UniProtKB/TrEMBL annotation:
Gene3D superfamilies: NAD(P)-binding Rossmann-like Domain (3.40.50.720). PANTHER family: ALDEHYDE OXIDOREDUCTASE MOLYBDENUM COFACTOR ASSEMBLY PROTEIN (PTHR30388), XANTHINE DEHYDROGENASE SUBUNIT A-RELATED (PTHR30388:SF6). InterPro entries: MoCofactor_Util/Proc, XdhC_Rossmann_dom. It comes from the Bacteria. This is Xanthine dehydrogenase accessory factor. Residues 19-136 form the XdhC Rossmann domain. It comes from Nocardioides cavernae.
Amino acid sequence: MTQRQQPWSDEAVGHGRILVLSDNPIARAIAVIASAVGRTVVVEPDDDGGPGLDPQPGDAVVLCDHDAPDAPTVLRAALASQASYVAMMASRRRAAGLLDELVEEGVDVSALHVPAGHDLGGKGPGEIALSVVAEIVAGSYGRPGGPMRDRSRG
């Protein structure tokens, strides 16, 4: 009998946490989707940053509320950390003022993903969350994302 190949691996792969500020429908959807793909998610509900997200090497930080009072502080800390992914939910236009403020302070914002996620065209919280988790997963494997059919056959 021929053994069938499975398209997945049962090998445990270590990934950092996904740290999300603050608690809103997109954050909750990120938690559900990321948990389904085996990622540990911490949602900080306090929009002032609460006790602090304390990003560690390999963690992903997602700011789901660019209007949160502590958004600049959270971004400063995340961008200065060894987090592997730092993102903010906002259009480029809405983020411009905050980014200008950080750049004026000397913060390197080149690693910041804004707007967060892959361009899936989704509008609802779950669809937006799916795009963010997809970007995090792709990045954690050193992949750009995009259709599998576009990968060279080998």
